[in-house]
Amino acid sequence: MASFAVKHFWARNQLGLKVLKPVILPKTLANQRSYTSALYVPGNKAYKSFAYLLPEIDFDNRVADIEKLQRELSLRGSAIDAKDLQKSWEYYQYVHSNKETLEQKHAELTNRIKEIYQKKDLSAEDKNEIEALITKIRLIKQDIKVVREAIWDLQETVIPEVLKLPNEIDPHTPSDAAIVVKSIGEKRDVPEDKRQSHLDIGRHLGLLEYKNPIQCYLCNEAVVFELGASAVASRILNESGATRVAGPDFARSLVVEGAGMDHESPMETFILQNMDDIEKDYLINRLHLVGGASLPALLAMYTKQAIKLNSFPLKVFTTGRQYTPFPSSPASYGLFSVCQSSAIQALTLVPKKDNDNHKSELENLVETASKIYDELDCHYRIVLRSAKELRTAESMRVSFEMWSAHSNQYIEVGHVSACGDYFSKRLSFAYQTSKSHVGFPATITGTLLSVPRVLGCLLEENPDKFVLPDKAAEFLH
Length: 477
Hints:
- The protein is α+β, with helices and mostly antiparallel strands.
- It has 2 domains: 58-164, Helix Hairpins (Orthogonal Bundle), CATH 1.10.287.40; 179-249 and 290-474, Bira Bifunctional Protein, Domain 2 (BirA Bifunctional Protein, domain 2).
- It has 13 helices and 17 strands.
- An 8-stranded mixed beta sheet has the order 3-12-13-14-17-11-10-6.
- α4 (82-117) runs antiparallel to α5 (124-163), α6 crosses α12 and α7 packs antiparallel against α10.
- The longest helix has 40 residues, at 124-163.
- The model is unreliable at 1-24 (pLDDT under 50).
- Belongs to the class-II aminoacyl-tRNA synthetase family. Type-1 seryl-tRNA synthetase subfamily.
- Its EC number is 6.1.1.11.
- Pfam families: tRNA-synt_2b.
- This is serine--tRNA ligase.
- One of its GO terms (biological process) is seryl-tRNA aminoacylation.
């Protein structure tokens, strides 16, 4: 059972106002402030850090079925207690409603004073009433100040925890184990005595210079493959109707957090530190090196944007670099865990997440990615990831895997994710159907191809010679 702390806030009974009773808050929220949100800037920090946007916090709908929410959190392996978080959220709303009550009472008393002053001659009774009203207003102002500070305190503890909630899980996502949807081609049988790591093969064939995950260089035919594979992917995506764009190499903390990542963790992104601001504890919207072919780079293009309804489905992609500090899997090594990789990132926006158009575009992007691997003439399989393997922003994840002969396992070389309206609500990009209705588009995105990972698997298939795929070799011509 969670440990709790008691918070007390109250208004003055003699004014006939609602009393703020003591409320029990989880100690994890009451005492812990190690994480600062870049998406939501509380009122008392607004003068220190500019609030670029206000995320749509749809928590009431999430807790409408609290048992379902807790079940999904458990399936993901999350330690979040939904009921504790619900109590904290209800208390935040409770305090906020009391602030509104105080402000309403303040306005009523102020208007009453104005009404009295409209009289031509003020009687002694009127003057006494004005004096009493001014005293009440002074007391209410003090109460509003106390409640406002309480709200700021809650905004620093409750809101970041609410924003950490993962996306809803799609009904098609397996609860227990991943499902192999399709396997294309045949796994190459490499004799056990000839199995080598792609690093050894690459060095022997003059294709790699590898020192560590940060210092890795492709040489000779490996460079041709990198350029050729990117060209093949670009052509196929263009033919599918997607538009090529150039993404920025850097993203702000609010976009990184909006993408469902921890903007304070050096394990997730390369954080750029300005030495002039190193002592400023309120510096929360920093720059991150993410690469132009990354999810934050594409999301930054649509942050706080209004999208025309006739623009859907909106399909874009970018090719270039992706920067990741550390591998997601401890078993990764060599080209499977380099910090800088050439990649193809795609993004599709559709108006709603629960209609046939969304399903169709998800299938189209998976099919488009399949065509890329088909043209590279390699064995791969398509896997539907389980709930525990999903990232925070994902409701469903379709992975593309290739066989690593040396490690004797399949390696993820690309993926397509359905993320619903998770990004659009956090980063405030929307469309308007009428004057009174604003909709948040659903996002389908993914790194369709990670060139170093594909190259590593191909090298291990043939230790004696690197066979450049025909379609990639066409890049030379």
